[in-house]
Recover the amino acids of this structure.
C-alpha cells in the first residue's frame, strides 16, 4: 500500500510508519519480554571493515548491472516522471516493489554489520529517523541518478557524522540539520551536478566575452 502513494503522501506515510514501528516494537518488547533492546556480541573492527568493503563492492556492482538493464531504465523513467512512465506501459508499482526489496537487502546487511559496532540496539536505534533518512541525504549530496554519486555522498557525510559527534556532540543534530538545508538549497543536483552547472556558467561567460569582442571590433571598424 505504501508504494502506491506518491509525492508528499508517500513521504508523510513513510515518516509515520517509522514512528509506528518504533512504538509497537518497544511496546511488545516491554510487555512480552520484559526488556527493551538487545545486547550484541562485539566483533573486531578489522573483520567488520572487510565485511563492509565486500558489501560496498557488491552494492556498487549490483547498482551498475541494474542501471544497464530494463529494470534500471524503468526506475529512471519513474524517477523522471512517474505518470508518464505509467502511460508508456511501465508497471510502476511492481518496479517500486522490486526497488524497495533490492535496496532493503543491502540496508539489512549493512544494519547487521553495524550492530556489533553499537554493541547494544533497541527499536529507537533500529528505526531512528536519522538513520532512516541518512541514505537519502547521502544520495542527494552525491547526486541521484548516478552510481558513484551516492558513494561520494556516503563518504563525505560519514566523515562529517564522525567529526560532528566527536567535536560538537551537544549540537550534532543542529549542525547536521544546517548541512542538509544548505545541500538542498545550493546543491539540489548534488556534487555530480556541479560539473555541468559550472560548464554552463563558464560556457555562458565565454560566449558573452566573444560577443563583446565581436561588438568591439565591429564598432572600431
Amino acid at each position: 500500500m505504501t508504494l502506491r502513494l506518491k509525492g508528499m503522501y508517500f513521504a508523510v506515510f513513510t515518516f509515520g510508519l517509522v514512528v509506528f514501528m518504533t512504538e509497537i516494537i518497544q511496546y511488545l518488547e516491554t510487555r512480552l519480554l520484559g526488556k527493551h533492546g538487545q545486547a550484541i556480541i562485539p566483533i573486531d573492527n578489522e573483520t567488520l571493515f572487510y565485511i563492509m568493503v565486500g558489501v560496498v563492492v557488491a552494492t556498487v556492482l549490483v547498482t551498475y548491472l541494474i542501471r544497464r538493464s530494463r529494470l534500471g531504465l524503468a526506475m529512471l523513467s519513474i524517477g523522471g516522471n512517474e505518470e508518464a512512465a505509467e502511460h508508456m506501459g511501465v508497471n510502476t508499482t511492481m518496479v517500486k516493489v522490486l526497488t524497495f526489496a533490492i535496496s532493503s537487502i543491502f540496508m539489512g546487511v549493512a544494519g547487521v554489520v553495524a550492530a556489533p559496532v553499537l554493541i547494544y540496539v533497541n527499536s529507537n536505534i533500529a528505526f531512528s529517523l536519522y538513520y532512516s533518512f541518512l541514505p537519502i541525504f547521502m544520495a542527494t549530496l552525491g547526486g541521484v541518478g548516478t552510481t558513484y554519486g551516492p558513494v561520494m555522498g556516503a563518504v563525505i557525510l560519514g566523515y562529517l557524522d564522525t567529526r560532528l559527534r566527536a567535536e560538537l556532540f551537544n549540537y550534532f543534530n543542529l549542525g547536521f540539520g544546517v548541512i542538509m538545508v544548505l545541500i538542498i538549497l545550493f546543491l539540489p543536483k548534488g556534487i555530480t551536478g556541479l560539473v555541468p552547472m559550472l560548464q554552463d556558467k563558464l560556457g555562458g561567460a565565454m560566449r558573452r566575452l566573444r560577443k563583446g569582442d565581436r561588438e568591439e571590433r565591429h564598432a572600431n571598424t
